[in-house]
Amino acid sequence: MPQIGFDNPVFATYAIAAALMVLKAVGMSWLTVVRMMQVKGGYRSPEDAKRTALNPEPRPGQLEPDDRVERIRRIQHNDLENLPFFFVAGFLYVLTAPPLWLAQALFYGYVVSRLLHFAAYYTAQIHDIRATLWTIGSLIIVFMTLASLWTLLGF
């Protein structure tokens, strides 16, 4: 059975997890826009504060940071810092032909850790909670990377 293909249940599991993470990351952009429209602020570019159909009554201060918008941007920034490592480490891990149960635990464990991290960040939970959830995802990436190296080097 080829390693890269939806017929391989390990790759299919990876593909599901990766697709969910892509949707989450893209969803953050939409959430940012929705929040900016709700608060009518947090815009970044000078042209965003001009009168348009979507901004019929521009007001002073629309370009000033709004913590409700910036919080979502920070969450998205965190995704952009972390998700590429998951995509690469997960893909390499598929090539090691791991047991399906372990791949599912790692891939879905990563997804759950990122979703819980989002929920904790969005609801302004203390740093310790966010850090714990981030650490779980990071350790999953480290494990998959080391397992890939271990296999590649023939151990």
Give a verbal description of the structure.
This protein is mainly alpha-helical and 155 residues long. It has a single domain, classed as Four Helix Bundle (Hemerythrin (Met), subunit A), CATH 1.20.120.550. 70% of the residues lie in helices and 0% in strands. The protein has 4 helices and no strands. It is elongated. The chain starts with 8 loop residues before the first helix and ends with a helix. The mean pLDDT is 90.
Q: Which fold name is given in CATH as the topology?
A: Four Helix Bundle (Hemerythrin (Met), subunit A)
- Approximately how much beta-strand content do the residues carry? under 5%
Average pLDDT rating: 90
Series of secondary-structure elements, N-terminal to C-terminal:
HHHH
| Main sheet makeup | none
Shape: elongated
Kindly give the count of domains: 1
- What is the second-level CATH architecture? Up-down Bundle
User: What's the number of helices?
Assistant: 4
How far apart the termini lie comes to 23 Å
Q: From the alpha-carbon coordinates, what is the Rg to the nearest angstrom?
A: 20 Å
Question: What is the structure about, briefly put?
Answer:
This protein is mainly alpha-helical. The protein has helices spanning 9-39, 67-94, 100-122, 127-152.
